[in-house]
Amino acid sequence: MKVGGVPYRAIFAEGDGTGVRVVDQTVLPHRFETVALETAADAARAIRDMVVRGAPLIGATAAYGVALAMRSDPSDDALAEARATLAATRPTAVNLRRALDGAGSLLLGLPTGERAAAAFGFAARLCEDDVRANRAIGEYGLEVFREIARRAGAGDAAGRELNVMTHCNAGWLATVDWGTATAPVYLAHDRGLRVHVWVRETRPRFQGAGLTAWELAQHGVPHTLVPDGAAGHLLGRGEVDVVIVGTDRTTAAGDVANKVGTYPLALAARDNGVPFYVAVPSTSVDWSIEDGARIPIEERDAEEVTRVRGVDGDGVERWVRVAPEGTRVANYAFDVTPGRLVTGMVTERGVCGAGGLRGLLGG
Which contacts qualify for 75-79: CB closer than 8 Å, 24 or more apart? Predict the structure, then answer.
């Protein structure tokens, strides 16, 4: 995707392919910066501190983290230490574990002298696979949008815009490129289907307000930012034609772990007869789990809830406290939406119901 007309990916190699840079998402939307990752510890900090976030991008960053470790020390001990350090960063996104397992399986079978090059090659392939999968999700999702628009009399020059609601950021900043839930939005916009996006602010870190709204503005997609609590109001008034969200981990039975607030959004969509879709790359499916209750739910620092970051009238970035000092906080990063509330799963191989993932993806 483009920033100020310049193509970027959320993570990219430079130089001879062993230099790694990521878009720093902690300073968006106020500044756009990229930062270099030099070591596995740098990659781990980037994941843990949410310099990078989103399940596919976390997996890609972890793969490059292993490669950076192998560049410095290709021994078995260094490989084990890098994998353990990276695995401990964030527990919910299954892409992290899959990337580390894939890198480990490949590298342990190689002589130490070949490991660094193989690890960088593995990370590069993982990134390219992610881009292809997300583009395919966009194509299948676009067909879903076109059918919904046809039934609603929306999307063309003679009618109103197709109104899409999303949650958190499942855009190109959450992946290597294109995004998952936003991929069909971008393709719809580029191919002349008139689309408008309701962007939920997504507290407490405001990934909708700070990231999704920024992305859509960069691409020229019409959008409106709304408080999280306004979703039910809009759904009840018929202002939303379709909801589409991403996923950090989806079980084999179709239960979906996504940014906290997704479950009540799915409930409101069901109550108002609005289709609720999940963009699911196959790398985000955990075939070892059927029941979403078994997905580990990350709990994050209280200060994400008690403080907010913004820019004051003088253009100075500041953190301010919004809760009484000492307030007890429970900061759950994700919730689980049961598959029964999901209208369809949009994957890189097609669209299916929540219970059809195994048949479609062959897990």
Answer: 75/112, 76/108, 79/104, 79/107, 79/108, 79/115
36-49 mean pLDDT: 97
Can you tell me the distance from the alpha carbon of 317 to that of 310, in angstroms, rounded to the nearest whole number? 6
Tell me: the pLDDT tens digits for 60-77? 999 999 999 999 999 999
- Write the CA distances from 123 to 138, 163, 190, 229, integer angstroms: 23, 36, 29, 39
Around Cβ 39, how many Cβ atoms within 10 Å? 15
Strand locations in 170-291 (E): 195-200, 223-226, 242-245, 249-251, 256-259, 276-279, 285-286
The whole-model pTM stands at 0.95
**Measuring CA to CA, how many Å separate 252 from each of 224, 280, 291, 340?**
34, 12, 8, 13
Looking at residue 170, its pLDDT comes to: 97
With contact defined as beta carbons under 8 Å apart, do 12 and 18 qualify?
A: no
- The helix/strand/coil state of 121 is helix
Q: Cβ atoms within 10 A of the Cβ of 224, count?
A: 15
Alpha helices in the chain (DSSP H): 40-48, 55-72, 76-87, 94-107, 112-152, 183-190, 207, 213-219, 231-236, 262-271, 303-306, 357-361
Side chain identity at residue 248, one-letter code: D
Cite the active site residues: 248
Q: Supply angle C-alpha 204, 297, 85, rounded to 5.
A: 100
DSSP label of 160: B
Residues sharing a CB contact under 8 Å with residue 175, sequence separation 6 or more, in sequence order: 10, 54, 56, 57, 130, 131, 134
